[in-house]
Amino acid sequence: MRLLVTGRDGQVAASLLEAGQARAGVEVVAIGRPQLDLAKPATVIDAIAAVKPDIVVSAAAYTAVDQAEDEPDLAFAVNAAGAGKVAEAAARLGVPVIHLSTDYVFDGTKADAYVEIDPTAPLGVYGASKLAGEQAVAAANASHLILRTAWVYSPFGKNFVKTMLRLAADRDEISVVADQRGNPTSGLDIADAILHAASMLHRNNDAAAFGTYHLAGTGETNWSGFARHILDTSLKFGGPWARVRDITTMDYPTKARRPANSRLSSAKFADVFAWTAPGWRESTGEVVRLVVGETKQALTV
C-alpha cells in the first residue's frame, strides 16, 4: 500500500514517514513545496498523479492561526481551494483521500465534547478556511475521510510540547492559559490511526466507512494542566522544568479567538475503525522522552 501525504515538513507528515518505515507492505511518500504547492493549484494534480498512490493523505495546511486574520485570501487558497484540489486529484486516480481538519470549526460554547453532527461555527479565518476545506474535499471526492483533530504535538516541527520545554530551559515560571479545555493529541498517534484506517480501506473500500470523524487523544485537560504534565515528565528524564502559573484567556490576548472548549468525542472513529488513542498523558510522556533525549544528544555532540 502506497500512501502519499501532502506537506513534507508537517507534524503528521513526519510522523507518517516514521511510522511507515516500521510497517511491512507500507510505503509513505511525502511531497510538498515547490513540487506541490496548495496555493498554486496547477501543481497539485500532476504532482499527485506522478506518485500513483493507493490513498492520499491531505495533511498540508495553512496553520498560522493569528496570521490568518491578516491573510484570509492565502488561508482560504491553501486550506479550502488547495485541499479541494488534492481531493480532486485523488478522485481522478480513483483512490480515497484522508483529510486532516481541526477543532477550530467549532466555537467552543458547547458544554460537552463535540460530536461530528454538532453545528459548526468557526470563530476566525483559520477555522472558517478549514471548514471550507472540509466542504471542498467532500464535494470533490466521495471516497473521503475527514478527520478533525486538536492540540496536536509531536517530536517534529513547532508545537506546544516543544515550546514548553524551550521556555523552561530559560525561565523559572511560565504563564499558561487555564480556561481552555481540549484533548492533547500526539502526531504519532494520528499517524498510527491513519495507517490503521488506510489499511482497512485498502483491503475493503467500504463506502459506508467514508465521512467525517473526530480523532483526538483520550482524556482531557486544560493548557496549564498539559504544560504541568509536560514539564513534570521532562524533569523525570533529566530535562528542563519550570513552575506553571494559571492565567485566563483575557490575560493572554491573541488576534484570533480560540474555542474555550475544544474537546472532541472520538467514539465514532473507535466504533467504525476499532482504534482508540492512548491516554494523553501516556502519549505526551513518550514525545517528551524523545524530545528531551534528542536535545541531550545534540548538546553532547
Explain briefly what this protein structure is:
With 301 residues, this protein is α/β, with parallel strands linked by helices.
Q: Termini, distance in Å?
A: 38 Å
- Any idea what the CATH superfamily of one domain is called? NAD(P)-binding Rossmann-like Domain
Strand content: 15-25%
> What is the CATH architecture term of one domain?
3-Layer(aba) Sandwich
Topology:
Layout: E1 2-6, H1 11-21, E2 27-31, H2 44-51, E3 55-58, H3 72-93, E4 97-102, H4 125-140, E5 144-149, E6 152-153, H5 160-168, E7 173-177, E8 181-182, E9 185-186, H6 187-203, E10 211-214, E11 221-222, H7 223-236, E12 243-247, H8 267-273, H9 280-300
Helix pairs in contact: 1-6, 2-3, 3-4, 5-7, 7-9
Describe this protein's structure.
This protein has helices at residues 11-21, 44-51, 72-93, 125-140, 160-168, 187-203, 223-236, 267-273, 280-300; strands at residues 2-6, 27-31, 55-58, 97-102, 144-149, 152-153, 173-177, 181-182, 185-186, 211-214, 221-222, 243-247. It has a domain at 2-158 and 185-219 and 263-278: 3-Layer(aba) Sandwich (Rossmann fold). Helix content is 42%, strand content 16%. The mean pLDDT is 95. It starts with a strand and ends with a helix. It has nine helices and twelve strands.
